[in-house]
Structure formats: C-alpha cells, structure tokens
Amino acid sequence: MLLFPIYKTTICQPFFITLSHQLLCYTNTNISIYLSFIRLLAISLIMASSSYALRTIPASSIRPANTSSRSIFTAPPTKSSLLPFTSSSNTSITRSLKLNSTLPHSSYFTSVPKKSFSCKSQAESSEAAERVQELSVYEINERDRGSPIYLRLSQKTVNSLGDLVPFTNKLYTGDLQKRIGITAGICILIQNKAEKGGDRYEAIYSFYFGDYGHIAVQGPYLTYEDTYLAVTGGSGIFEGVSGQVKLHQIMYPFKILYTFYLKGIKDLPKELIVETVEPNPSVQASDAAKNLESHATVPGFTD
C-alpha cells in the first residue's frame, strides 16, 4: 500500500481519505487505472495546497505586479522588456561604433584642443621682460624751433615756483648719424638754486622715434647736474616699457645726452643701438642727419 502525507486541514483530509479507498479497491484490477489514480491524486494535492496558500496569505504581503519578484506562474520577461533601448537606438550605436573603429588612433588626440605650454618659453619671456636694454640718444637745441619759452607765471624777476618752460628739441642717435625725431614737453619750476647757478624743475615730456613710437618720462630736471627720470610708458615698439633714463647735462639748454635703461620690451632695432659718441660741448649731428637725407633718418622720423 502506498502512503502519502496527510494534511491536517479540513479541506484536504476528506478528499484524501476518499481517494485512498478508491486506490485500494482498484489495486488488483487494472494497473493502468491505478496509475491514473496516482496522477489524479498528485494533481488534486497540488490544487488543494495552492488553494490553501491563496487563502492564508495576508493581503498586506501581496506585492504589485511591477516589482522585481515574480510568481512562478508569471510568464518570463521578453527580450525587448529587458533592454532599456529600442532596436533602432541599438542600430545607431552599432553604426557609431563601426565608424569610430575605422578612425585612426591619432584622431582621438587631434580632436582634443591642445594648449601650448612650456616652462622654458615662459621662463625666457620672463627673462626678456626683466632684461635691461640700454639706449642712448642726443637732444640738441639748434635754435631753429623757437624753444624753449619761459613763462613767468610767478610775476617775479627771479625764477620762482610756478614758472613754466615748454620746450621741443631735435633728437639724434647716439652716434649722431641719424635724425630720430624730437622731444616735446614742459618743465615746472620748483626751486631756484642760486648757490648752484641753476634751477630745479619737475619735467613731463616725450621722446618721439618716428614709426618706432615714443617714450614718455617724468621726474626731476636739474639744470646744474645729472638726474634720473622715470620711464612711465610708451607706444609702438615701446608699448609696456618701464625703467629709467639718465639725463646728462652737457651744455644747458642746448646739448643733453640721455641714456635709457629699458625693461619689458622686445629687442630694440639695430639702427638705434649704436656706439655712442663721447659727450662734450662740441658734439653735433652729422650734416646728412641735419639735412634729413634718406639714409640719415629713421623710418617716419618725427620733425
């Protein structure tokens, strides 16, 4: 006799006993009928247990159908539901991958913007900006420009505070072979130095170098000794310039030698960097420079 587990539930027990008696009656008659009853018994037990489980599960434990947990009787998800994109997007991605795979490896790098960076080049630029370049020029008053003019705003017979002196003179290279341009500016009298036979001025003026641009300076202008003025700026090739200039009085107010010490600019033109004539009261510009001959002037010289 076959033994089966008996469920202690009111639903399963009567049904189980009935089937057991039927099995005993048909055991000796026909084996095929016996096997059929076994199948029927198994199906009945499964259905009974399922029905009992459905009745005893609390409603609060039932999850929505769209959760990740699925019943064993739920159909498995289709292939399309597992993919977050459609077949059309998949096709476009495949085409993109094929296209990228045909590109040379160098294209990955050439497409990225590059920055030119060099510690060496930056260091060289910094050194060039701090490098001091020396430039010497002569300022000569040839008495043909009506300069200087003395304006006695103090209304005194002796040079006094407040008097103004506008001026402009010719400018030549340090070797006196080329005409560069002019100086133009104004001096404000600060103090008369009778014991030194001269005056102290505060000067503001510019040096014009034709097409090369100009240099602006400001500072003390003494008629009796050398001084240094500040280079305050410039234009053209002198844009961004800084430094100072030494004013050497040769014969006031007719001959002065200026020596610039310039920083923050590129290399000066070779025609401006020449061997300077030793300053003395007899120095004068060459005849070619005075006559403004083409080979004796800088490009676009200022007159």
TrEMBL record:
Listed GO MF terms: allene-oxide cyclase activity
UniProt subcellular location: Plastid, Chloroplast
Keywords, alphabetical: Chloroplast, Isomerase, Plastid, Transit peptide
GO cellular component, one term: chloroplast
Classification via Pfam families: Allene_ox_cyc
Keyword Electron transport attached: no
GO biological process, one term: jasmonic acid biosynthetic process
Domain of life: Eukaryota
Enzyme nomenclature, EC number: 5.3.99.6
Substrates-to-products reaction catalysed: (9Z,13S,15Z)-12,13-epoxyoctadeca-9,11,15-trienoate = (9S,13S,15Z)-12-oxophyto-10,15-dienoate
Keyword Isomerase in annotation: yes
Family of the protein in this entry: Belongs to the allene oxide cyclase family.
This protein's name: allene-oxide cyclase
